[in-house]
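Look at one such:
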Amino acid sequence: MITRKLRPSFVCRAVLGPARPHSSAPPQPVPPLTQTLGRYLRALEPLLPQDELDHTRKMVQKFGQGGGLGEKLQQELEKRARHSHNWITDWWVRWAYLESRLPLAVHSNPAISLPRRDYSDWRGQLVFASKLIAGVLDFKYRVERGRLPVENIRGQLLCAELFPRLFSSCRIPGPKHDYVAHYGRSRRGPTHITVVRNYQFFQLDVYNSDGTPLTESQIHGQLLRIRSQSWKTDKEPMGILTSEHRHTWGQAYNRLLRDKINKESVRLIEKGLFTLCLDSPVMRISDDKYSSRMAAQILHGGGTYSNSGNRWFDKTLQFVVGEDGSWGLLYEQATAEGPPIATLLHHLLEFCKKPDRVRAPLVPLPMPKKLYFYIDPEIKWDIEMAKQNLDILINDLDINCFNFQRFGKEFPKQHNFSPNSFIQVALQLAYYRVHGELCASCETASLRMFRGGRTDYIRSPTNQSLKFVLAFDNPAVSKEAKVELLREAVEVHSELTEQALQGQGIDRHLLGLKLQAIEEGLSVPRIFMDTAYGLATHWKLRTGQVPSNTDSVMCFGPLVPDGYAVCYNPQPDHVHFSVTAFNCCEETNAEKLALTLETSLCHLQTLLQPPGA
C-alpha cells in the first residue's frame, strides 16, 4: 500500500470517535466530475480496442454533460461530503467487505509473515509469545494515551482513527451483509485476549486487578497453564467455521448461538482484545520453499490437518506464533489495513529487542478459562462441510514467495526513478510477457491524509506503460529509446500515485456516483453497465507495496478467479515478493509470473547500466 515513506456504514456495538491527536485531518474531497470522467477514459485506452473505446466515450460524455444525470449525482455527493464524516468510507467498507459473501480466508484477510525467530521448540514459542503479547499491550496503552509517534505527509497529520478500533473488534456474519462489532469503548472494555492451541480456545485475562498489564513472566506462566490444558488434538476445529462462505457461516453462526454455552464462548472470542494462535510444527521443507510455506501458514493455517483450526478469521487481529520460530499476523480488512498494521508491527519489533525489566507481582493469577462448545449433529455437519471447503480452497491457491537480491529500492533511486513506480512498470512488463496483453491492475493507495480516509486505487496500465512493454522486447528499438519510454512510464505512474494520495483518484469517485444513484432508487447509470466498466474493474492484477523496516512479506489471494495478487516489500538492496494465483485457472500460474517478474527486473537493470558495467 502506498503511503509515501511511512512506516509501515457499518453498524458498531460502540461508537468510536476520531483519535484526539489527529482530528485536524481535513475532509476527503469529492473530485471534479469532468476530471474523473476524463481520467477514466484515459485509463481505458491501453485496455480496449478503438471501436469499444469510441462507444464508451460517447456514453461517458452523455453521462457527464451539463444538467445530466452525472452532474446531479455529483451535487448529491458534494452535499453528502458536507454532512458526513467521510463521504465514501462507510459506503466503501460496506460494498467492498461487508457485502462480499466470499470466505475471509484467502479471498480477503491479508497475512504478514515475519522473519523467523531464533527458537525451534514449544519452550521458545511460549517465551516469544509472552513477549509479543506484552508488546501489543504496550502499543494499545500508547494508542489510548495518544503517545504514538506522530505520522504526517508534508506536515499534514495523518488520521489515526483506525488504531483504537484494532482492539476488541470482530466481524459478525449476517444473511445479506456482515457488520463489525466494536467492544473497546464500552464502560469497562474487555481485559482479555483469546489464545487458541490444538483447536481449543482460552480466555486469558492480561491485566491485574489494579489495571496494570501482566508482566512477561506472568503471561508466560499463564501460557504454560494453557499448554497443559490443551494436549489433545481430537477436538472439533470450531474456528474452521469462520472460513466458510459468509452466507453459510451466517446460518451456522445462528445455529451455534442457540446454545447458551456456545454463545458465551463465541462472545468471549469476539470481545477479546486480539487472538493469539499457538501453532503446532509443520512439515519441514527446503529453504527455497520455506518463505512460501510460512506465508501460507499465516494466511490460512495450512489446512484442516494442520493449523487452520487455530484461527477465527472474523477477528480483527490474530497473531500467529509457531513452534518452529515462524510468526506473523493475520487481519480482517473491514477494520484494519496496511499502514496502521505496519506501525503496530514496527512497535512490536522494537519492543522485542528490549529485555523484560518488570518484576512480576507475587499475586496468584486465576487459571485461564477454557471455552467450551456444545456440538450437536447440525453443527458437526457444518464443521465437516467447512473442513472440506477450506481444504479445497487451500489446495486451489498457489503461493510463490521469493527474495529478489540483484538490487533493492536504492537502484531505481540512483537513476531518479520512484522505486515503487519502477516495480509497478516491471510488473506490467512481466504480465505482458506472460499473457501478451495488459490487464486491469490496481495498486492500493492510503487516504489517511483525510479524516476517516481509507484507500483508493492506482491504475498501473497506462498508454506510456503499454508503449514501453511493446517496445522492450523489440530489437528494432534502440536502447536509448527504451530508456526514455521506461522513464515516461515510471513518471506517469508517479503522477497517478500523487493524484490518488491527494484524494483525486477515480475509482472511489466512480463507485460513489454509482452508489448514490442506487441510494436514490434510480437505475444504475449506463456507464456502469457498460462492458468497458466491467473489464476495467475485473482486477486481474491486484498489487500492493507494504514498506517495512524488516524482511517481512505480505500475502493475499487474487481478487478474481483468473487473476494474480502480487505484494512486495522493497529493502535498500533487495525486494521481497509474494505472488498468488488459483490453480483452477489454466491461464494463470504464480510460479511463471514470479520467474518472469524476476527476469524482467534483471533486464531493466541491464537496460539502465552503462555499456561494459
Observations:
- Residues 4-22 have pLDDT under 50 and may be disordered.
